[in-house]
């Protein structure tokens, strides 16, 4: 049985060698059914790529730890198929998954990138990990993140600075940048991230990927190291919209350990993947939120990509409606977010129930222990200072409520299916700078869903021979994931903007 890391030429025969480069669930399952791929081979080739490119070569530094029994799990899945060759494959059978290291996986440390949590070995799986395993997925590795998921550049005391595979002088966005860089470089087939403000969609935008932030209540957060549970959620990071939909089919659902999921239980369709439609843009009404675009010279690269993408969306039969209402993302960032007010409460609740060997039991313990990354120290101090500001906290919650109603009225007034805008008004920043002008606040402040897809690239430059990726964000009302996936899939198929990074080519 032959397996290759080389891309399969268009039109290749049925039994052409399978390529792990840009592998999808559908492609991998087709190869497994025709006998040219096993789960062990798929996991092994992903591990080969991690060995070649994560700490060596371009040294992306996206992986914090590899699951010590990943190949054993792949062998177990292969044995199931060998015993029942006519049995349909499980939805995610054999798919290697990269998991952001603030989500618990049994037998692995859950550190959030923090040195002080190095020994926090999880006794059980988070709800979403259990769902993935039940669907046949293989947890391959835990990924680097911005320490404690509290920043946008993906740097931590345990993992260092993760690099963007499209431009090794730039960050991969964050905080789920380790998952995104790894998925972009084909270290796994599927990725799992978390999003408190921008943290799934920012790295998806910066790494030419699909990133879905679901409606609050659709996916359980049980087993997540929290930053603030009013805004924290978990979601897919993938190379295609179809794979994001397949993941959502698996991980969405009610979990008694996270009461907010009772709100989503009545909104689950039979299948999110069934909503995908190549002609899904025809007749759609899409609001272009112009206040979420920049107007200066530094915004031109992003605006140029967005202009081309919007033109193609219109050519596919969608009606574009310019929305010029004076709603400014920077003002929303300053006035509506509540994660810093909740962080001490929610993080303390998580830390207090960890095993006795973990030396920190509160945010104050983390501060006292020292050693957190400098970019996080100020956030922790702010969280402690704001934890008792109940009046300000309640006022921000009221602003979030008002924003939800304003958006419902806006969508109804213009009869819109979605709002669209660039996830970032300017390109992802170089290493050493702080991410600015991201637009993820609209979804995080409301709990409404949003999905980012590849829109294209800026002009090539010395450090970025392909250009720097630009992501387009679709935003919708609660539990409209089927609509967003339909529009995102049709746009993805029209744009064909996904490209693998040249810094991590196929292995010989």
Automatic annotation (TrEMBL):
Its EC number is 3.5.1.4. Residues 44-485 form the Amidase domain. It comes from the Bacteria. Keywords: Hydrolase. One of its GO terms (molecular function) is amidase activity. SUPFAM superfamilies: Amidase signature (AS) enzymes (SSF75304). Signal peptide: none annotated. Pfam families: Amidase (PF01425). Coiled coil: none annotated. This is Amidase. It comes from Cupriavidus taiwanensis (strain DSM 17343 / BCRC 17206 / CCUG 44338 / CIP 107171 / LMG 19424 / R1).
